[in-house]
Amino acid sequence: MSYAYFPGCSQQGMAAEFDRSARSVCDRLGIALSEIPDWVCCGATPAHATSHLLSIALPALTLAKVKDADAVATVCAACYSRLRIASHELREDAELRARVKEAAGVECAGEVPVRHLLDILCNDLGVAAIRERVKRPLAGLKVACYYGCLLMRPPKVVAFDDPENPRVMDEVLAAAGAECVEWPYKTECCGASLSLARPDVVCKLANDILREARDAGAHVIAVACPLCHTNLDLRQADVARQYGVRYEMPVLFFTQLLGLALGVPEKGLGLNRLIVSPKPVLEKLAAA
Amino acid sequence: MMSDTFEPKIVAFVCNWCTYTGADLAGTSRMQYPANVRIIKLPCTGRISPLFIMKALEQGADGVLVSGCHPGDCHYTAGNYHARRKYTIFREMLHFLGVEPERLFFSWVSAAEGRKWADLVAEVTDTVRRLGPRRSAWGEPVEGIAAPRLSANPVPFEAPAGTFAAQAEAMREKAKALLAGGEVGTVIGYEQGTLPGTARPAFVSTPEEVDRLVWNEHCHQNLAVYAARKPAKPGKVALVVKPCDERSLVGLLQENRLAREDVVLIGMACHGVQSEGALAPRCAACQTRTPALADPVIGEATPPTATADPRLEQIARIEQMAPAERWNFWQGHFSRCLKCYACRAACSLCTCERCLAEKAQPRWIPAPPDGAGNLSWHAVRAWHLAGRCVDCGACSAACPADIPLYLLNLKLAQVVKDAFDYEAGRDPAAAPPLTTYREDDAQEFIR
Amino acid sequence: MKLGSVAREKTRSGFLAEVRRRSGTNPADCYQCGKCTAGCPLTFAGDLDPARVMRLVQLGQRDAVLQSRTIWLCASCETCTTRCPQEVDLASVMDALRIMAREAGLTQAAREVAIANAGLLGSVKSRGRVHEMMLVLQQNLRTLHLFRDAEKGPVLMLKGKMDPLGHKRGARDQVRRLFENVARMEAAERAASTTPRCACSDEGGEA
Amino acid sequence: MARVGVFICHCGENIARTVDCARVAEYAATLPGVAHAVDYRYMCSDPGQRLIETAIREHGLTGVVVASCSPHMHEVTFRRTVARAGLNPFLCEMANIREQCSWVHEDREAATAKACELVRLMVEKVKWNTALEPIHVPVTRKALVIGGGIAGIQAALDIANGGREVILVEKGPSIGGHMAQLSETFPTLDCSQCIMTPRMVEVKNHPNITLYTYAEVEKVDGYIGNFAVTIRKKARCVDEALCTGCGECQSKCPQGKLKTSVIPNEFDLGLSRRPAIYVPFPQAVPNVPVIDKEHCRYFQDGKCGVCQKVCPAKAVDFTQTDQVVTEQVGAIVVATGYDVMSSGEYGEYGGGRYPDVIDGLQFERLLSASGPTGGEVKRPSDGKVPETVVFIACAGSRDRSHGVPYCSKICCMYTAKHAMLYKHKVHHGQAYVFYMDIRAGGKNYDEFVRRAIEEEGAVYLRGRVSRLYQKDGQLIVKGADTLSGQPVEIAADLVVLATAIQARPGSDALAQMLKVPYDGYGFLSEAHPKLRPVETNSAGVYLAGACQAPKDIPETVAQASAAASKVLGLFSMEQMEREPTVSVVNERTCIGCFDCERVCPFGAIEHREIRDRRGNLLKVVSHVNEGVCAGCGACATTCRSGSIELRGYTDEQVFAQIAAVGV
Hints:
The complex is a heterotetramer of chains A (288), B (447), C (207) and D (663). With 207 residues, chain C is mainly alpha-helical. Chain C has eleven helices and no strands.
């Protein structure tokens, strides 16, 4: 399988460690990613809240650049959702295809499937293959896998797992030796698209998620979306201010955790870039 | 009715349970409507054969109305669903033949819809009155309108070098083996025709005779026509088939004309066949080049090309004609018909022992080979192949009068595909489209 | 909103039809079970709960809906769409309402969201990709929250998360043309749909 | 040569006002083949009818056309009239010159001209009419009832009490159905088993009822009055004749030890365990155990055999095999009932992962005195008495996205009952009910729901629940109350889902066997939704209870009695008479493509083999079973070779009418 890789804007800035760790992990696992040349932003929520045509035409511009790949691979849940929805609508709707052609100046029939890295890990590679390559199992580490909203919703178009109780990330990290806790907020929304405009609102949602993860006994939260990550990691200070609770809960990209288990050097994972440092937890684990 | 205005005669076929009762209700409610409609009552729309519509037109009706129970309300559960499918196709066929579609009306009128019935009759009468009398009798051309002609653009045919000879050799070997094996008594294939550049069906029953068999671009006949006939020699029949001929077999299997194990199929991977020096038009856009049912498949097929089917262009041109032109186009062709029934004899799916054309009591099709008789015959022939014709072209090839029968067949195949998403001769397990229905079949034409 | 009055029928059905056309889902399918309200993570923050938004759409209360804060606070998490027993795509309805509100100039209820959306798209338009740091600065300037999240700046810089020069650009010319084309096409489509034709005519039967 | 008589009725002024009846009669007399034409003031009056009778005799008429009102009004009358004069009734036709002529036209000229034509159409038709004789079908006066729930029991008892024999077939080891599982019934709160058990015993003891439990209908051949039914009696491995029902075997079965048994008790819907040899519940009829071979040690590894050793009556017989019996019956009542959708269907309600999320039927068992908790409400996970219970209505119903789009009809009522009974058992407990609408149409039904709210303190919240999850031994329920426009969160100890009522799995296969249409959900279809609610389009097959649609007990019982009365009506004659207007196949020209069979909605087309004198098969052709054909004519239209005719509406008759329009 060959994958055309779409990193997404955040993975060049705030969440560069997501991109870095994803590449390292894929490298270790023998998944060949080739970055789509000159890709453009997926438009995220602002695009579809502003113009339906724009929200399809932007991803179409990128998708049209994909040549000779079996699938488009994404890491960010939001990019995944936008690209996948665009490709789905382009496939279904000939009239939309024509309008997109007029707007974007490119033809795109949405033929190359858009996939999320978790889907690829679980369904193309398989957890058994991951388990074989684990060098430093994450034994004793309790992880709350947080999928967020866009990875599985709307299920008719994007889901590659049970939308109410997804298991893919749990299975991948279990293969890495971690203990994934059962907790109820796997797919609750963190409000990330409002992060810029309404930090107050977002803080409440982040607090709920952090609380539930802590109550379920998790040492860390694993995420698959840079927006979720910013919200849960960076906003812990605001949560402490607004709700008086200090969680000190490290929030890691699932690729970082998987990378640790596969023996990727820390530099290749960007652990130092996290606001709430995972060091204490990881050290305690290593000592145990 | 003694006034000077044209008073049309309109025949209404209605079901007993809904529309007839609805018309009674219009009466008990004393709703007034024009006196031009003559109701013929039948138990159910399922009993209202589309051929009744044709019969009414043949007998001079100016307009025809068919009405029954709303979907879901049929007294017999599903009669109206089956009828709806039949009307969908038949209406398109009459339209294609040049009958003005404005003269045909289809509706659902329930027993409670007296008002709808009264309004419907008023509207139908008014519409037909405005159209005026039919411009010609059934099977007669409209005066003063030319009969347009169509030209075809032949697609050149290039036979791939060497492939035919190798295939022919393998086919003969297989035929010999089958005959030697004893189970097969007759192999039906092709042999060199009387004229150069032709081939004709050959029946061989000994391994020695097999050397007569040929395989080349002239083997256009559909040998499936012999599949359902009782062989003269004991033992099974083995047929040399192209992938398109196989579709006939699928039809025959669906209609219980034979069982798959009754016949051995020697499948020939196809490169297209020739007709009048060019690629046969039906081969131009053919996508099925490799037999699917056959026991052995001999050779490798030439991959399908992206050529458009030239006949679709012809159909489009007919559809662009005005109704009277279309009518005259067909009358022009049908006027040459000799009623020789070669089209029927060549058709692999015309398997009735007694054709409706020969039914004397009552007479469905006027016997003489004149305008009315010819038109009715060709309409019935096409109608009976709707949803069944596999586009083998045998009828047109057999016609001594060069009537382009394939156009009518192909048009109806298109209608069936568009309306019911069904292609004849593809799936032996599929229910033929006129023997089944979906509750949500389209019904825009029914008011 | 005038309580106790359903919008005049033509206005009501016209609005309903427009929302239906733009969202690709039929608001009339909503039977007010409230499952969206129950599951919406942002019900607490909005002025109308999602089921109420749907109800007002059904009643043709155009102004009340387009001026509500809720449509801007929707995070597009699709929980409602996923669980709706009537298969109403509420998230698309919210998108359609935001677009309609923006066109009507009714974004006062949640100015900061509209600004954030415009900011991100502006960044995409000029660079082909988002520049996060610029986005934060712009947002604070435009909403006059000059020092919001200011304390995070140094931390982020330290962690290498905010790099003023870091972001690459992608296919700028193509993207700029795309934005222009979309604007032109949508203006033309709007003009075509507001000519004398009754707004409800594309749906038929409602008027 | 035809000799047709035409009789024009004035209907007082009703026809004569706009139609010149005398002129119509004059015109009719000129038509070829008309031997006599006359008009009269009231043709349906005694003197009018006598006029027809006399004319038939005097003129030797071979056909009669009465031009008057609609045939729906008086066709029967005039057919009887001609029959009295010795003419076959099917040689009489009516021209409708009142409802479809005089009443809808004002112009006397136009109306008279049309009346003339309508008469002409019918004269031409009647010339082609032939004498038809009613079809007589013998009736086997014995009924089969499929399903031993309350519907089947009621139907069987009613038929048996009407003096006819009944075979009652039940799939499970005991009759009783879902009603035997219920605690108390709405709206009267009478104990379900108390009213059910006497009926079950009556079935067992009734001389006219043959009861086959642990048996299934395998095949149905034939048609109304003459069905041949094949029934498989599965091997119980316990001899019904010898067993005394002492219960020794169950109590000694090593698989049934209270602590160790792993076999879920179906009757308690998995809330308790049972032995491998068992009677499903104490009041079971018959009170004879059955061996569950999948879990029996003897059948699994050949060891054990304890039950056989302890049985004092020597009734346990491991060698017993299935028995197949064939029964002849004249009518069939289908009463196969319903199932509830599993509470695990909803991912957002835990997808079956939470033991304390149960369905309504399971809650019935928790409430029942004979249930796994002895009637104390204790939750499955830890046996704790729940202090907060959330009931969720419409869990799967009215949900086209995740469940079924229809309303399950009974949930509103049983949920109110559940809330009430819970309160009766746990006085300090609180019940919350999430609902969308309350559908409580029925005698004393709404009062019942109001009582639950007003007197029993159940809190009704109008809204659906979005999701629920487990936390700290409780279930966090996130719902909404749309009346106040806000989300609601409740920490509950137990959640009861009123899951959708569904057709029994396999009901579609049974329907196909019986040739009864069914809907997209597997519910069997009645012949007419209003006027023929217990009949089906398959003559002789009747419906009772929830196999047709979700129903409560009173409705089910009413329909069962209605089905029984239909059966008894059919059985009141030794022979059944059917209209002779059915299809007939010309076997000479039929080629056996069986397209007719595909379009026949009644399964009336049979295959008939045509053989020569030596017995060689020549061909297989269609044959119409006159007992089954309803006379719609779809087959005749579909037959390409014109080999099928519908009597009374033959091609000749239609052609004659079409030709008569064109004149």
